Amino acid sequence: MSNHHVSIEDVPLNGFHQLLTIRSSGGWLMDGYVLSIIGVAMVQFSAALGLTSFWEGMVAASALIGIFVGGFAGGWLSDRLGRQKPYFFGPVIFFVCSLAQLWVQSGEALFWLRFLIGIGVGIEYPVAGSLLVEFMPRKYRGPRLAMLTIIWFLGAALAYIVGNLLLSTGAPDAWRWVLASPAVIGIVLFLVRIGTPESPRWLLSKGRSAEAEAVIKKVYGPSFSLKNLPEEKTEKKISLWALLHSGYGKRMLFVSLFWSCSVIPVFAVYSFAPRVLEALNLTGKWESFGSVAITLLFVVGCIIATRIINVLGRRAMVIHSFLWSALALLALGACSNGSAWLILVLFGAYAVLIGGAQVLQLVYPNEIFPTEVRAFAVGMGASLSRIGAAIGTWAVPIALNSIGIGNTMYAAAAVSFVGLAASILLAPETRSLSLQEAASLNH
């Protein structure tokens, strides 16, 4: 049978696509793991290294600052070097810098190692994301992108489970092994990615059509060729100024605001889950059990949201997600002296209800910008939201000490209400529109 007229956008999923999903989603697993593992060991290493609350905040926020730098670097590198080479940068950085934490002697050294790990994570976003989107048939792109958010939270849950197991050994320097544990994921990720081909779309954009054709034949079968790759307009480089002036400024504002407001409370709660639960008088087994339970509820929230995204629509989902999760945070502020069960129920409710805004972080910016600015807009959204998250994370230990847990929760609720206002005013509806229609400004 001739495949001359079958676009590779419409082929059925094959083994290569499934393997590529595993190879790329490893980056998100790593991200969830490294950003959460710091909270698990915070109390121990803080005491061992004699950190002030300023340095506690700096160490917790360091990876987020690194992600901000790495996000821009990853976009630039994947334009220059392709997707394939930078695909290995993240795993190498994770391995080397995680292992180095076994010998760390100061808050400053820990800050710089975590900063470098953050750069590795930041590189993953544009590089692993581009590879996945550029090979994935169009029908599966949305669900696969939403799935990466779920993988992130699974990585976070794994961090709490592994971290608490290592701490429970009671070894005096157990926290060092907790912080070094991501090295294992780094080496596995490196090995799994060996053999990944370069993106044919990138090769074509560099005029290397013979190599692009060879990759297509290898991935899709010998009857496929460049003729099966849909014609693409050559992507013109676009500056931030041109993006804002072309009428997409309002959308960039929406993506930056909604993304920031959906991650600031999550990262702040996450980096300090044990500390926050302790401040809410949940100590002992509640602390470790609570962290894992809440993480798994984030996963549940993301799975529910992924299931109903096409039923409810994007706009309704982001508005409801912010409204109800903000009310859960308000209740946490009001009931900060409540019973352990009440606190866990409210934390759990927040975790499930914010799922809608979480999965839309990768769906919205990929849908509402045209091809030539899509990667740039996603990178901008990710980087800007991480600045907000870094500030929020840095502020949590200081806020817990100065204004107390109740007011800290009220502040997190206020951030969520800003996200709600931005969504009501600015969120477009893109359900049932094609990518072209969703990205055009006049629907």
Walk me through this protein's architecture:
α10 (240-271) runs antiparallel to α15. The chain is mainly alpha-helical and 443 residues long. The protein starts with 14 loop residues before the first helix and ends with a helix. 78% of the residues lie in helices and 0% in strands.
- Average pLDDT reading: 83
Question: Could you tell me how far the N terminus lies from the C terminus, measured between alpha carbons in angstroms?
Answer: 40 Å
Uncertain parts: none
Query: Mind telling me the CATH class of the largest domain?
Result: Mainly Alpha
Gross CATH architecture of the largest domain: Up-down Bundle
Beta-strand residue fraction: under 5%
Largest sheet: none
The count of β-strands is 0
Helix content: over 70%
Task: Describe the protein's topology.
Blueprint: H1 15-49, H2 53-80, H3 89-100, H4 107-135, H5 138-167, H6 174-180, H7 182-193, H8 200-205, H9 209-220, H10 240-271, H11 273-279, H12 285-312, H13 314-334, H14 340-353, H15 355-368, H16 371-402, H17 404-426, H18 435-439
Question: Which features characterize this protein?
Answer:
2 domains; Growth Hormone, Chain: A; mainly alpha; 443 residues; globular; 0% strand
Concise synopsis of the structure shown:
With 443 residues, the protein is an all-alpha fold. It contains 18 helices and no strands.
